[in-house]
Amino acid sequence: MALIGQEKGEHLMKHAVTIATICALSLALGGCQRASEPATDATSAGAAEAITWPVSINAAMVGMIDHSADYLFALGNGDMPRNENDWHLVGNSAYEIVLAGAVIRHPGTGPFDAAWVKEPEWQRLAQELSGIGEEAVKLAAAKSTDEAAWRAVGDRLIANCLECHKQFKPEIPSEGILRGSTERQSRGISIFGY
Questions:
Q1: What is the model's pLDDT at position 194?
Q2: Which of 25, 32, 37, 192 is most buried when burial is the number of CB atoms within 10 A of its CB?
Q3: Is 27 a domain residue?
Q4: 36 belongs to a structural domain
């Protein structure tokens, strides 16, 4: 039982660190601009293009999208949050999907990252991913128990991921990076039942 509590604490810490890191990067980039000069589209675009993440896009996707998607899929499968903490996990997961779409628009350390982010279709799919996350944020904020609405979000998320992997990475997408929740889900155990 102590191990389960520890895993839950580590999971919450991971989400907090992810969000804090992205916020810090955003603030750091914003602070690089002189206050006396208004931001121009060219200046903003140049700063955005200069971002290179310290991990591969694949690692970012597995770390953010795969794990967070589990919480959104759960609701579409009738596994509803049981308390405020569960809703907090769902809300954080929805935000991670929004952020993941923004993160994968920039290259990381992966061998194909720089080429992928130059593709207009990659950028379109990444923006669509953020939009799917925004839908999930609204449902989570409303604490919606509408299973069909959650399933529709999950279906769009699956379609987005399949389309992206079909075009850019049709082979095994995880690079050997596995999720810890896979076995639990395959046994039909609630994602919220730690």
A1: 56
A2: 192
A3: no
A4: no
What's the rounded mean pLDDT across residues 42-51? 56
Q: For residue 32, with 0-12 CB atoms within 10 Å meaning exposed, 13-18 middle and 19 or more buried, which class applies? A: exposed
User: CA torsion sign, 156 to 112 to 109 to 121?
Assistant: negative
Quote the CA–CA distance of 70 and 43 in Å, as a whole number: 37
Distances (CA, A) of 123 to 5, 98, 109: 38, 14, 18
pLDDT of residue 29: 36
Assigned domain for 23 exists: no
Residue 105 tokens read as: 């628009």
Question: Helices H, strands E: what count in the chain?
Answer: 9, 0
CATH number assigned to the domain comprising residue 125: 1.20.120
Q: Say if 111 falls within a structural domain.
A: yes
| Domain coverage including residue 121 | 54-186
Please give the structure tokens belonging to residue 188.
């039909």
Q: Is the pTM above the cut of 0.90?
A: no
Per the structure, the count of domains in the chain is 1
